[in-house]
Write a structure and sequence with these properties.
- The protein is α/β, with parallel strands linked by helices.
- The chain has 2 domains: about 1-185, Spore Coat Polysaccharide Biosynthesis Protein SpsA, Chain A; about 185-275, no CATH class.
- The chain has helices spanning about 15-25, 45-50, 65-70, 90-100, 115-130, 140-145, 155-165, 185-205, 210-215, 220-230, 235-275, and strands spanning about 1-10, 30-40, 55-60, 80, 85-90, 105, 110-115, 135-140, 170-175, 180-185.
- It has a 7-stranded mixed sheet, with helices on both faces. A 3-stranded mixed sheet has the order 5-10-7.
- Helix 1 (about 15-25) links the parallel strand 1 (about 1-10) and strand 2.
- Helix 8 packs antiparallel against helix 9 (about 210-215).
Length: about 280
């Protein structure tokens, strides 16, 4: 059994959590701990996780904080962070541990699967993207760069990667893959998700201004992946352009809505101070 903990943050993840945990039990090299940090799911996620023998921690925490809590609750010297919609190929754990013998952190290649046209667009978009972030660390290295930023609801993985690079951590990459089970995406579901992330984007932009501006650049985020895919499959290239454009607009609306809410709160606080004076 390898000295590595797997931490899985969850919230209403009953559709995917069983396949995720099953893939962990089928690893060619067993991990030492599986910790599911659940945000008080209402759909039986915690019960499913316990059925697979996972250590379930129920706490009101966003994904970033949940990951930190998972590590703090473990005793392993290495940690792999897995999302509840991910399925691990059989050699992920073994290759991660081997890679950590020479490196501080590990990047694992990822692939999307699912049904429908828009899910296929997401799959091809991921293939066309060069953005990768480590999700497996030695405990010492992870703590040394400050763990996940608990204030971030979006971009937390890129934020951590930026700090890992700036701290000169040695980052390796394995061949074994992680698969994202996207289900059947729709334009409504992807734009709703991006709207939520847009409301939290201000915190990421303040801590990562350079990469944040790159993420909202429509040329980098919309045009380039569309062109890369269109060169091979124009039908899906057009779909990626439509999907990414709607996501960009939804995220922008979310950012504006959050900014206006903060401005109103600030004005209200200033008025309360004036009244007190």
């Amino acid at each position: 059994m390898q000295d590595i903990a797997i931490v899985v943050p969850t919230f209403n993840s009953s559709r995917t959590i069983a396949k995720c945990l099953e893939s962990i039990t089928l690893q060619s090299s067993r991990c030492s701990e599986v910790l599911v940090v659940d945000r008080f799911s209402k759909d039986g996620t915690a019960a499913i996780a316990r059925g697979f023998g996972a250590n379930v921690i129920e706490v009101e925490a966003n994904r970033s904080l949940a990951r930190n809590i998972g590590l703090e609750s473990s005793s392993s010297t290495n940690v792999l962070f897995v999302d509840s919609d991910m399925i691990l190929s059989p050699n992920v754990v073994g290759e991660c541990v081997e890679c950590l013998g020479e490196h501080d952190a590990v990047v694992i290649p990822e692939l999307s699967i699912g049904d429908g046209y828009w899910t296929k667009c997401r799959q091809l978009e991921r293939r066309a993207s060069s953005l990768e972030a480590a999700r497996c660390f030695s405990r010492t290295a992870f703590v040394s760069i400050g763990k996940y930023n608990p204030r971030l609801e979006t971009g937390e993985d890129v934020d951590l990667q930026n700090r890992a690079v700036s701290s000169d951590l040695s980052i390796g990459r394995i061949d074994a893959m992680i698969v994202h089970d996207e289900g059947k995406l729709s334009l409504i579901s992807v734009t709703r998700k991006k709207y939520f992330y847009g409301k939290a984007f201000g915190d990421y932009l303040r801590t990562n201004p350079s990469t944040g501006l790159k993420r909202i650049n429509p040329v980098c985020g919309i045009v380039m992946p569309s062109l890369r895919v269109s060169a091979l499959t124009p039908r899906y290239g057009v779909g990626i352009f439509i999907m990414k454009s709607l996501e960009w607009a939804a995220a922008g609306l979310g950012y504006v809505a959050a900014s206006q809410r903060k401005d109103k709160l600030r004005i209200s606080q200033m008025r309360n101070l004036d009244v007190c004076r």
